[in-house]
Specification:
By secondary structure, the chain is mainly beta. The strands form four sheets. Strands 2-3-13-11-10-4 form a six-stranded mixed beta sheet. It starts with a strand and ends in a 13-residue tail after the last strand.
Length: about 220
Amino acid sequence: MSALHISRRGLLRMGAVSAGIAVAGCADDSSDDSESETSTERFSDLETASIRGDPDAPLVRLPPDSDDSDGDGDDPDAEPESLLVLTESTAVDALEYDREGRSDDVRELLAATTFEAESALVYQARVSECYERRLEYVDAGTDRFDLQFCRVERDASVACEIDREQLQATFVRVPVAYEDDPSEWSVGSSSSCRTNVTSDDGDESEDEGGAASAEDDE
C-alpha cells in the first residue's frame, strides 16, 4: 500500500480523545499489551513543512479514484482533519494539495524523501489564525509512530483574529520506511512547548513554561 489515509471520522472510530484534539488509534484493539508494545526511537529534529488554508475542506487529498482514498476527494462535506502516511513515491505523485503559500517547501521535503529508508507523515487539523502548530518530537518504530505537537504564537506582523481558525497541514519526514500500515499510531498536541522547537522558517521557540496538556487549547 502506497499511503494510509485516516479521516477524522476514522480517528474518532479508532479511539479519538477530546474530539480529535489529542487522538490515538490502534489497528487491532484485540491484541494484548505485550503484543502492542514496540520499540521506538525519539526524533526531535526532523524536517517539516506546512501549509495553511480554509478550515472547511482538506488541504491535502488523495484522488478519489486512488486505492487508498476514502472517497472524499471531491466531497465538499469531507472532514478536513486527517492523517496521511506516505510510503512510496507513487503516493506523492498522486497527492493533491493546495499549492499556495509555502507549498515550495512541501514539494522540496517530499522530493528529498528517500522512501527506501524514510516515510512522510501528513497531519492536518484546525488551529487559531494567531497560532501555529509545531512538531515537538516523533516516537517512531518499525510498525508504529507517535506525533507530538505544541502550539506557539505566530509572528506579531501576521494579521489574524484569535477566534478564527485555519486548517494547517504539517508534513513530517521520519527516518523509518513503513512497508505496511503502522499497527499503532497517536497524535498529541499541547498548548505550550516543553522543549525548543524549530518552525518551518528555521526560527526556534523557547519553552513557555507550565505543564504541557494532552489537549490543545485552540
